[in-house]
Amino acid sequence: MRIIDIIEKKRDKFELTKEEIDFFVQGYTKGEIPDYQMSALLMAIYFNGMTNEETVNLTMSMAHSGDILDLNRIDGVKVDKHSTGGVGDKTTLIVAPIAACCGVKIAKMSGRGLGFSGGTIDKLESFEGINLRPDVEDFIKQVNDIGIAVIAQTGDLAPADKKIYALRDITGTVANKSLIASSIMSKKIAAGCDKIVLDVKVGSGAFMRTIDEARELAKIMSDIGKGVGREVVCLLTNMDEPLGINVGNILEVKEAMEVLKGIGPSDITEVSIQLAANIVSIGLGIEYDKAIDMVEKVIEDGSAFEKFRQMIEREGGETKYFDDMDLFAESKYKVNVLAPRDGYIKSIKTNEIGRASMILGAGRETKEDDIDFTAGIQIFKKTSQQVQEGDTICTIHTNNEDAIKQATEIILNAYEFTDELVDKPVLIYDIVR
Ligand code: URA
Fold first, then answer.
1. Which of 30, 312, 331, 383 suits a disulfide with 317, CB 3.0-4.6 Å?
2. What pTM, to 2 d.p., does this model score?
3. Helix residue ranges per DSSP H, 170-287
């Protein structure tokens, strides 16, 4: 078999066989296929798509490119949660402790942020000293002891996806449904959970820009799950504006802690409760309404907040912030961005807010970049809200004085104002079971 024949076959819109898919996945992972040929193939897939059978074969090939975790030594149903990526999306930090408090086992491996989209691991590293790379034995023991572990994805799980995703990220080939579905599901299958709740983001800060596209992605991932005997529930949620107020690592951790205390912004609280209730409902096999009651109760009585503290402590992170959030480090510069006119906020180009946050130091342009944990943006005015000229719409946080002007311009260009009343955005479009 030759890679050039596979590239030409996909370029000419033919369906690839399982053997051909295994050939390029294995060949690229082992370094036998160079980046330039893999890039050409990915671009051909990006434009010509894949059939469902090709997508399943790609998923399984990437899932089996490394270890498949055996979580059988963890008692109870293990439910994993994954978001397709967004701006200000700190739901894992909220949902995982809530679900664990309700009795679902959370054994979760998460990723880092790249480009405009943030990552859970960067957020958790806001707690100094935290070790997100325990060995598998410690990971399993932690889940058995306290019901929850959120750690970094190990190098041995779906290494093909890791390598291919990094290449997609720099070749403009991320936003393809088959490639996203196979990337996410290969990791989930390798991570060994019984059931999966997926948060499929839709809108200007997501890879899927329309509800129809997101629904199709959700269906592909549910079908892959069904094919391998894993129940999958997908929530289609709004990413036409950042979720919550805070974007940036420490800022997002603080907001997650506020939601767990029951004092967080309403949009992120609502989305988190719905995600958590779906996890609890499928994890415990109980009615959705009952799951909602349980979720609300563990927020109200403070046990979800305490579970988060317990997880950070167990993973070696500094916990003084749970007693006083003001102890978190802050950026040297805090600069308000002001509304340039009276009116209503019509829309926010959310990917641009993510880009501004990255320029301020909160994210990475390339995998090697360092991040500034204190940097980010607080979005005080969101879609449908009325503003007057000079009102603060956002506050920029950064230690890089040189980035302030550019970030301010990006933020102002991301906002669209109107004189007409604007409807409040819908938070959850659909739940695909
Ligand atoms: N998240 C992933 O893990 N993979 C993708 O391809 C897109 C989002």
1. 312
2. 0.92
3. 177-190, 211-227, 249-260, 266-284
